[in-house]
Amino acid sequence: MGELLYFKNCEERKKAEELLKKCWPEVSFVVMRLDMQNILEEERIHFGKWDIEFEKKRMLYDGTEIVITDLQWDILQLLMSDTELSFSIKEIAYATNTGVHEAKIYVEDLLKTIKEQTDSAIVQKKEERYAFVEITD
Which processes are annotated in GO (biological process) (predicted)? Predict the structure, then answer.
């Protein structure tokens, strides 16, 4: 269950985000904004030490940016689209319009990059399927 808060300006929102991170570092929250057509749009999600900014295509772990390729970003967004689903390499290849072999290389590189730079595993492989897991370490 969540609460929806409205802020008059960006400064108020930034202060609220900092308070949330400081008081409850393990909390997960989604930062929303209204676009020009007054439609709510996800701008960023925060969970544990992670911040993922959709518009800028950036992943931050404990304030440090994790650099990934555009195709790896597309794969990450696919996996994050539904945290209750897992995807096979064939499904990932189809969704990203790549070959199966190429998709496998990019997924494995994504797993390796995240693991090496964060010692955390937000993308996990289980029985030849890949899924996004919200780790709040």
Answer: regulation of DNA-templated transcription
Domain with residue 82: its CATH number is 1.10.10.10
Residue 16 in any domain: the answer is: yes
Same domain, 5 and 62: no
pTM of the model: 0.69
Residue 137 placed within a domain: no
**What does each of the 137 residues of the chain score in pLDDT, given as a tens digit?**
455 566 666 677 677 777 777 776 666 666 666 666 666 666 777 777 888 887 788 888 888 888 888 899 999 888 888 778 889 999 999 999 999 999 999 999 998 988 888 877 788 888 889 988 876 55
Structural domain range at position 27? 1-39
